[in-house]
Task: structure prediction
Amino acid sequence: MLDWDDLRIFLAVARAESLSRAGRALKLDAATVGRRIARLEEEMSAKLFVKSPQGYALSEAGDRLLPHAEAAEQAFAGAQEELSGAAGQLTGQLRIGAPDGCANYLLPQVCARISDANPGLEVQIVALPRVFNLSKREADMAITVSRPTAGRLTVQKLTDYHLHLAAHREYLANSAPLTCKADLRGHRMIGYIPDMIFDKELDYFAETEAQVVGLASNSASVQTRMVQSGAGVGIVHDFAIPFAPGVVRVLADEVSLKRAFWLIRHADDRRSERLTRFAEALGQGLRDEVTRLERLAADTTLAGL
Result:
């Protein structure tokens, strides 16, 4: 008979593709994880993994077992919540992956409010400038800047948001006039490292007259800090401007970008009431916070200097 604890270990190895990484996630040593997998394979009379120099990959039998193990995981999580005594509240651990701009400027306060309403909930925010692999359960859900078109995923639009050219007041006071897009050629531009743009929606500078990015980072938050330091002009999330004192929007009538955040979940999770309830709270919280912060940012606009 299959045991949930065995399936839990199977899922950890399937997602980590390594005994040692799975062991760290489970707080078990790698040898114990290996013995438990061997025991499960013996009980099932099937090899669940194919070992190679790259790690542990699922075999054909492992692929067949995976959706059943994930269903058991969801059922176990649902049972825990139902029996926890926290009626109507979310409990347990949830991990969200997000691009660093969203993770730095929006998710902390949004998730804090959700946690205040659900004291038994533990929320983990993973901020990385890349796309997350939900199949490997790097996160329970992820926020992206473009709508995925492939994979077994459920996709939900969360909110639109806006970006504008911005600079620090001191930089503008001590630099060449900036009255139209053509003037950008005389300013140091701040943006993404071109060959590290992981999503086409982040390729902003095609919409400006700028020719060269003089300072670059793969992090939107680092770019905002560069702008705040007076290093030049960059395209900044409106929702980040209230966190950067002295930074103002410039040429807002000429350069205005609109993008969207999308919430993606593994297709098998659509039956999880727990994840659905969290997604609803997250979506409403993000919409409210983007609206609040963008109103504050609009008050910092300078049409030209």
The first helix runs from residue 4 to 16. The mean pLDDT is 86.
